[in-house]
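Thread: Newbie trying to understand structure tokens

Hi all, I'm a second-year student working on a class project, and my supervisor (Dr. K.) asked me to get a predicted structure for one chain before our next meeting. I've only ever worked with sequences, so writing a 3D structure as a token string is new to me. If someone could post the tokens and maybe explain what I'm looking at, I'd be very grateful. Here's the chain:
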Amino acid sequence: MRPDPVGPGQESVWDYPRPPSAEVTDRHVVVELGGRVLADTHRAVRVCETSHPPVFYVPRDDVAAGVLERGGGGSWCEWKGAATYWDVVLDGRTWAGIAWSYEDPSPGYEHLRGAVAFYPGAVDRALVDGEQARPQPGGFYGGWITDDVVGPFKGAPGTLGW
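---
Reply by user tm_fold:
Sure, no problem. This is what the structure looks like when written as tokens:
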């Protein structure tokens, strides 16, 4: 595996740290589903980890009221702790496992408490400063690929050992 070339205004996911960074960004993040805005913020937490595109966690106050219901299952991140999964319910229709959060994050990631990340491939639109984000390959990770980030990205078949 070789990192992709980095052009002007781009960053390589291979320069991201491990353990991941988690910093508040003023980039405009919007999530839409079923013709409705689920989330709209200028204060998302941007999590960057080696080999992964960034994930944007939206403060719960910037998520539309009443659309999230706790979903089934869960997972464990060695850095951030236990993940809680969320369903979205709109007009009686349920989209299962569309988002996740860390309700009691590990030390160093406390500012993720009360924030929700959405899988960009599970919503109609996941926008960063007006650009449609593309989902990270594979079905597990939830990174947001935009034109300012280059890979290759972990998640596709054959990359789990990276």
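A couple of things are worth pointing out once you decode it. The chain has one domain: 11-150. The first strand starts at residue 11 and ends at 12. Feel free to ask follow-ups in this thread.
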